[in-house]
């Protein structure tokens, strides 16, 4: 799937909605809980491919030993002093 899909369900009433983004789902959960005091849960059914890759590259647990160090998504840390930014080290022909 190319996008995010989140299902929101209330354990105390018949509320059940599907959202195409995490933000909209969070708002629905917050609004319903605030208005009713009900216990609302959400299920992230799918996320964009880039989000999924970033999660896999970072490691689910977030520990450095779980990360994919070869990933361009992992922050390698600050550049060594004296080195040129990549754009300067490869001038256009």
From TrEMBL:
Stretches with biased composition (Basic and acidic residues): 83-93
Q: Where is this region: Disordered?
A: 62-93
Which Pfam families does the annotation name?
DUF7542
Q: What is this protein called?
A: Uncharacterized protein
Source organism per UniProt: Halorubrum tebenquichense DSM 14210
The upper taxonomy is: Archaea, Methanobacteriati, Methanobacteriota, Stenosarchaea group, Halobacteria
């Amino acid at each position: 799937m190319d996008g995010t899909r989140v299902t929101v369900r209330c354990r105390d009433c018949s509320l059940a909605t599907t959202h195409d983004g995490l933000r909209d789902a969070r708002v629905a959960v917050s609004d319903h809980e605030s208005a009713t005091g009900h216990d609302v849960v959400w299920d992230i059914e799918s996320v964009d491919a880039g989000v999924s890759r970033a999660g896999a590259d970072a490691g689910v647990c977030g520990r450095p030993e779980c990360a994919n160090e070869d990933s361009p998504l992992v922050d390698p840390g600050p550049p060594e002093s004296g080195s040129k930014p990549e754009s300067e080290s490869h001038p256009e022909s």
